Amino acid sequence: MAIIKMIENVKNFITGAWSLVKGLAVTLKNCFIPAITLQYPTQKQSMQERFRGLVDLHPEKCITCNQCIKICPTACLSLTYKEVDTSTSLGTSKKKIPETFKYNMELCCFCGLCQQVCPTSAIYMNKLYEIAVYDRDKLQINLLNPEKYIEWTDTTIK
Questions:
Q1: Could you give the count of Cα atoms lying within 13 Å of 111 in the half-sphere of its Cβ?
Q2: In this structure, are residues 120 and 82 in contact, taking their beta carbons and an 8 Å threshold?
Q3: What is the pTM of this model?
Q4: Is beta strand 91-104 parallel, antiparallel or unpaired with respect to 77-88?
Q5: pLDDT at 154
């Protein structure tokens, strides 16, 4: 009986020692691999090409066709425009110029349909993914404002 107990203790010792060696092997292997951790507030991961962030606009390309507004399933976009007379060699014509282009981030489902339907590629989905705010009024954005997303592009720690 004592011999069986001693053999069982030796087996347990060998099993424990072997598991310790395997654990140390994993630890040593990972000691020499470079770290992949980012220092988050100051370093941010770049998004993939197909990532859909916030809606953004190239105002100079917009022809106010309203297709993005018509296709939006959540009605998070609204556009007002003014008509301006332009004279050409053929005569005068009216051109639509966007006056306000509102985007409600609170309603947006980030589907990207507005980007797909835009004939001039004026509207696109940017790569911003940090969009937390304390005030709901900041979720209403005028896309014609050149500094619309300056709050979220600043990488300094607040």
A1: 14
A2: no
A3: 0.70
A4: antiparallel
A5: 66
In whole angstroms, give the CA distance from residue 108 to residue 73.
9
Q: What is the CA radius of gyration of the chain?
A: 29
**Gap between the Cα atoms of 84 and 109, Å rounded:** 34
Closest CA relative to residue 85, chosen from 77, 97, 69, 99: 97
Residue 12 backbone phi and psi in degrees, to 5: -60, -40
Residue-wise pLDDT for 14-46, tens only, equals 999 999 999 999 999 888 888 888 888 788 888
Tokens of 9: 């203790």
Identity at 86, one-letter amino acid code: T
Query: Residue 92's beta-bridge partner residues?
Result: 87
Average pLDDT over residues 134-141: 90
Instruction: Note the residue count of the chain.
Output: 158
